[in-house]
Amino acid sequence: MDLGALFGNFNNFLDFTVGGLVIGAIYALVALGYTMVYGVLQLINFAHSEVFMYGTFAVAWTFVLLHGTGDASWSLGRAVPILLVALVAAMLMSAAIALLVERFAYRPLINKNAPKLIALISAIGASFALAEAMGLRDRFAKWFGLDDNLANYVAPNKARDVYSNPVSIQPHGLFHIGGYSVTDVDLVVVVAALVMMFALDIFVRRTKFGRGIRAVAQDPEAAALMGVNSTRVVQVTFLVGGLMAGAAATLYMMKIGSTRQNAGFLLGVKAFTAAVMGGIGNLRGALLGGLLLGVMENWGSAVFGSEWKDVVAFVLLVLILLVRPSGLLGEALGKARA
Amino acid sequence: MLLEVDGLCVNYGHIEAIRDISFGVEEGTVTSLIGANGAGKSTTLKTISGLRKVRAGTITFDGKDITHARPFERVLMGISQSPEGRGCFPGMTVLENLDMGAFVRKDRKSAAYRSDLDRVFDLFPRLKERERQAAGSMSGGEQQMLAIGRALMAKPRLLLLDEPSMGLAPKLIQQIFTIVTEINQQGTTVLLVEQNAAQALKRSDNAHILETGEIVRSGTGHELAGDDSVKAAYLGGDL
Ligand SMILES: Nc1ncnc2c1ncn2[C@@H]1O[C@H](COP(=O)(O)OP(=O)(O)OP(=O)(O)O)[C@@H](O)[C@H]1O
Ligand SMILES: [Mg+2]
User: Fold this and answer.
1) Does residue B43 line the site of ligand 1, with CB under 6 A?
2) Are B176 and B148 in contact (CB under 8 A)?
3) What gap in Å lies between CA B32 and CA B12, rounded to an integer?
4) Would you place residue A332 in the very low, low, confident or very high pLDDT band (cuts 50, 70, 90)?
5) What are phi and psi of A305, to 5 degrees?
6) Which of A6, A218, A271, B126 has the most beta carbons within 10 angstroms of its beta carbon?
7) What is the reported pLDDT for B74?
8) Angle, CA B41 vertex, CA B38 and CA B43 arms, to 5°
9) Bridge partners of residue A175, in order along the sequence
10) What is the pLDDT of residues B3-59, one digit of tens each?
């Protein structure tokens, strides 16, 4: 343990803190998906990690299609046109997966009034099925008759290996906060995440459809009596969670640059943790939880060594929940008020 | 008939909550359902709103079969309910709750909407005072007023009221019944469920008595209020 590494020097302290906020912004975007679905259905959508993971592949494939497989290292500015296409592709891909999960893993159970536990198991099943299917994409490529060349684009060597984006984006330092050099990539990650969250917040609080979502979250039967189409509300909830996860996937690929069929798992667990920490069901809680988790991880690795980072983060979760069982900002999408 | 219920059966698992009931509600009237606790009154209203599945029988509204329509479709057609136990949205303010009542209306920016809101505030000045308070932090009686006001904001053709007087002070109960008569005179058809049988019958054109899921007596409000066996069973010391 080396507290000095974190607190001994203010520049180092800022370095770890700002770095944590950047990755925390990505956690927060994914956390929104957990929190929206939980807020409306009191259900933990374990398949949301795969919704994110499919988005990361959509980004990589967009680069393969538009650029080719030759490895390249670009500045952010040069990558922007393809990144914008990738953003749309990832959002569409993640939204589509989220809607599929809703349609086939949840709706039949909800219609039968199945206990929440059953829906949870169904979600875990959907999660594994989706992850493993991605791990078999080399077979799918063959079944669909992609020629060797193209199949290799989709699943280089072995489908279960790490899949790197052909274009790695070279971050460019803009200014320093303490010891942390804030890069253009960092700035885009944080600003994009905040803009998405702000837009979602407006949607839920200020639009008629958003009021319908809040009504279902607070009392589904009463909402039905007001004329809210609850099936549509649930669909849109999954859709919005998917769009946010797709955006997160794009930012993740900008920052990290590679993915795998199980890339969603750890990130999903962390995003879920962030959601719970902030108060699951609470949109602003997801933001707070995500940023906090990112920062805590970095502090933990500074003090204890990077191999301890996840231990620290999750011990922190337990501690926070012991003190505030409903999370930092409290539960419930509907009850959260401006 | 604005509403026709024909041979309706509703189950909760193996429990038969409603067994083969049939009745109609004439446009422009007040109809009451009277019965002991557990007789199936709330289940009947919930089924009319589409919250409970029909095992057998049909429900017709304005000539259209709505037996299997989704709840929101029925609201769009003009059926609104103030549910038992109020069902206010606890995290929304009074104003937001009333606005939820008007969820299906397209004229929410209009003067008509504004005047409907004013009417609710005239009926319940208390709600006006509490406009910006979260519904969850209001008293039981205040929430009851809110639930009724919210149902009115939908401007329904058929208003289902499940025990509107529940939890209200005696003076307010009187007021609630006056309001029921008033909104009926303004053209809304009302189907009323009440424990307060004497009051309900006095103001009803027609009434039906439910016992363990079946209709055992039907008649005009006046007839049933004067009937000795009804008096003995439901009106008690009320008269
Ligand atoms: N969700 C439910 N699950 C199982 N049984 C139910 C459920 N809701 C109601 N019941 C049963 O159905 C029957 C009718 O209930 P209902 O609520 O319609 O009665 P009610 O006439 O409205 O009574 P009250 O005057 O007490 O409100 C009762 O026997 C009740 O126990
Ligand atoms: Mg009842």
Assistant:
1) yes
2) yes
3) 24
4) low
5) 105, 150
6) A271
7) 97
8) 90
9) A182
10) 999 999 999 989 999 999 999 999 999 999 999 999 999 999 999 999 999 999 999
From atom 26 of ligand 1, which residue's Cα is the shortest distance away?
B37
Render pLDDT for A68-108 as a digit per residue (tens, 0 to 9): 888 889 999 999 999 999 999 999 999 999 999 999 999 99
What's B134's DSSP letter? B
Torsion of CA A289, A294, A299, A305, to 10 degrees: 130
Handedness of CA A13, A16, A18, A24 (dihedral sign): negative
Position B93 scores a pLDDT of 94
What mean pLDDT is predicted for residues A265-281? Answer: 91
CATH pick for B1-78+157-167+187-239 out of 3.40.50.300, 2.60.40.10, 3.10.180.10, 3.90.70.10:
3.40.50.300
In the structure encoding, which two tokens stand for residue A279, read together? 């108060």
Q: Residue A243 is encoded by which pair of tokens?
A: 């769009």
CA distances from B103 to A8, A194, A336 (A): 58, 30, 20
pTM, entire model: 0.89
- The alpha carbon of residue B133 is apart from the nearest alpha carbon of chain A, in Å, by 12
Q: Is B150 on the interface with A (CB under 8 A)?
A: yes
A226 and B90 within 8 Å at the Cβ level: the answer is no
The ipTM of this complex is: 0.92
Task: Tell me the CATH number at A163.
Answer: 1.10.3470
pLDDT, mean of residues B70-88 = 93
Q: Which amino acid is at B15?
A: I
Cβ contacts of residue A63 below 8 Å, gap of 6+?
Answer: A82, A86, A165, A166, A167
* Chain A residue with the nearest C-alpha to that of B70: A229
List Cα–Cα distances, B118 to A102, B144, B173, in angstroms.
41, 18, 21
Is the Cβ–Cβ distance between B209 and B232 less than 8 Å? no
Question: Of B74 and A116, which is predicted with more confidence?
Answer: B74
Residue A101's nearest CA partner among A166, A65, A51, A58 is A51
Q: In chain B, what residues touch A216 (CB-CB under 8 Å)? A: none
Count CB neighbours of B14 within 10 A: 5
CB-CB under 8 Å, B101 with A332? no
**Residue B1 amino acid letter:** M
pLDDT tens-digit series, residues A180-214: 889 999 999 999 999 999 999 999 989 999 999 99
Interface contact A227-B104, CB threshold 8 A: yes
- Interval A207-235 mean pLDDT: 94
- List chain B domain ranges: 1-78+157-167+187-239, 88-155
DSSP A103: I
In whole angstroms, what is the distance from residue B82 CA to residue B63 CA?
23
* Contact A307/B at CB under 8 A: no
Please state the domain count of chain A. Answer: 1
Residue B99, Cβ neighbours under 10 Å: how many?
20
pLDDT at A336 over 80: no
Binary contact (B49, A224; C-beta < 8 A) = yes
Please work out whether the CB of residue B157 comes within 6 Å of at least one atom of ligand 1: no
pLDDT tens digits, residue range B132-190? 999 999 998 899 999 999 999 998 999 999 999 888 888 888 888 998 998 899 899 99
